[in-house]
# Entry
Amino acid sequence: MKVSLIRLAMVIAAAWFDANAFAVTPYSFSDHPSQDGRCIDDHGVGDIDRSERACLEQVGEFAKRVGPGLQLKFRNGKTRIYLNEEAKCRSGDADGCVKYQLTGYFPEHDLVLIEVDYWEGASWLLVRIATGDVVEIVAPPHYSPDRRWLASVASSVGPAGPPNGMDVVPATSDPSLKEWHYRVPDDGQWLYEFAGFEGNARIKLLASSMTGPQRGVSGFIERRNGEWQLREPR
# Structure
């Protein structure tokens, strides 16, 4: 199923980026895939070529593969198992097919990243090792320069890619820092690409119009008065 997803991603990425003048990065939905949280001895570069084996070796006691299950043990003593539905994947049951892989570790902030693969598409989970708290995001995230924030941006057309949207999540569990999530509506005009942080309170986006010729124009996510806000291209 992983191989099928990768092949599907490559076809989609090639068609999408060719049509929109963005370069193609292997095994990635993005031209700027994050390298943050990539585990030691993981030599991949894309979104979906991260190594679970490398992460299991690095995370040690907090995660292990138990047959079709990914077991996490949290610092509060609780455990959780993310169970692959391999039989459904083999049978072609698109609705029930799901596979979980440990694909990232952020030791500074006690976070792990789980890739969730479906028959069509993928998403990611950020999980806090201390408590097991989970945040769903659209792509492997990028650190802000001060490492207080993690930002994800992804674009797709149809069900085969990642969720079409963006997330900004505090790296710590500080309740005074609010998460921000945005999903592009079905009638939205733009598909977005992460282009980098500009300081700690501004994220540059590249956008391509879904309804017109505009490609690679700039948009931003900015933090104002304690809230993240999207500024769409004009």
In short: Residues 2-231 form one domain.
